[in-house]
Amino acid sequence: METAHALAAKGADHGTAVLAARQTEGRGTRGRAWASGVGGLWCSMVTRPRRTDALEALSLRIGLALAAVIELAVPALPRLGIKWPNDLLLDHRKLAGILCEAHWSGDRCQWVVIGLGVNVANVLPDELRATAARLADWAPAVTVDTLAAKVIAAIALTTRDAGPLTATELAAFARRDALTGQRLTAPWLGTAEGITASGALRVRTDSGPIHEVIGGVASTPL
Question: Where does residue 1 rank: exposed (0-12), middle (13-18), buried (19+ CB within 10 A)?
Fold first, then answer.
């Protein structure tokens, strides 16, 4: 991510990608660590969206594109789910994570670096085997080389627009939504009820009103 930001500051074009064989300090949202061993797709991309009025929706738009690319490349997979705001799930376990970091100058977004981590054939730590998934367990022949160019091209195309999600995108997300119907414990006690075009999560609270959440929530395990 730091390398991609540095390249962006020097004028790197939209779609410039940085790949790593291994990360020793991988990170996710809110500072969470990400295990990044050899065999996974660890990629950071410089993007320069033409619209930036709904940046919170960007990770969801990327999730839709990433899921479509993976399903085409590895057709034996079950349907991939998206857990708001930035996780791709396979068999209810985390397959990929998305991290968007925008760089601002005053009130203008100069660029957004997109960090992608996809478990492909990397060894999963013992403590993550119950909650993480990798593509090689479903399709042993799949490799990072199988996916990298297709993923980079799809994300570069998808991130040209960081405006609100379209009706088509909202419908596509609803078909993959892995959080709707789950009980939430924070920031309110309630139930997830889909998303808005701006990327916010709709939460029906136990007291009745629906609130919109940007950032993150805590949910009860499936």
Answer: middle
pLDDT 10s digits, 52-98: 999 999 999 999 999 999 999 998 899 999 999 999 999 999 999 99
- HSE, CB side, 13 Å, CA atoms: give it for residue 86: 24
Protein fold of 183-219? SH3 type barrels. (2.30.30)
Domain ranges for the chain, please list them.
2-176, 183-219
Say which residues have a Cβ less than 8 Å from residue 138's Cβ, sequence separation at least 6.
74, 76, 77, 90
Report the CATH architecture of 2-176.
Answer: 2-Layer Sandwich (3.30)
- Amino acid symbol at 54: A
- Percentage with pLDDT > 90 across the chain: 83
d(CA 36, CA 22) in angstroms, rounded, equals: 6
